[in-house]
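Predict structure. Chain length: 79.
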Amino acid sequence: MKQLIVITAIALAVTAPARSQALVDPNKVAPEYREAAEKRRAEQMRQRECALKADLEKVLPRDRTVFLNHCLETLAAKQ
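Prediction complete.
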């Protein structure tokens, strides 16, 4: 039993924490893919903005998807 606990503790200590996807840098991609990278970065910025709004408004996890979808639709309608 002690061995199992030690092995589990080591496995948890070694694993890397989950991180969100890094922002795309259009300057670091090949020129033919730059336009797509710029569009992806803009989409990522909109998603982060909505996620920040959800955090500030303390949206419950069960309601977060609906909130994010509504926020993204609102941002798309403004453009």
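Summary: The helical segments are 2-14, 34-56, 61-78.
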